[in-house]
Amino acid sequence: MTTSTGDRTTEAVQQELLKFLAEHTRTDWAPDTDLFAKGGVSSLFAMQLLVHIESTYGISITGDDLNLDNFRTVHRMAALVHRLCGEGSDG
Questions:
Q1: N or C: which end of the chain has fewer CB within 10 A?
Q2: What is the Cα–Cα distance from 91 to 12, expressed in whole angstroms?
Q3: pLDDT tens-digit profile of 39-50?
Q4: Contact criterion met (CB below 8 Å) for 81 and 70
């Protein structure tokens, strides 16, 4: 199922990502926790997370946007989603 951020707030995107992470890691995370530093995300799970973000929000993450820093925290992931969704819009 593909949806865009539409009128969703950054907080709504963060909540969706936190829910996904909690379901897959069986741990609750704060939006500003460095998931890699805390051992919450392996390189294999990072790929699953990337696919989830792309398919959920209808975006393609390529080039410089594949930088690990964009995926360290839920806050950074939500900002990336909003930026990429905004670049793809006509308004």
A1: C
A2: 21
A3: 988 888 999 999
A4: no
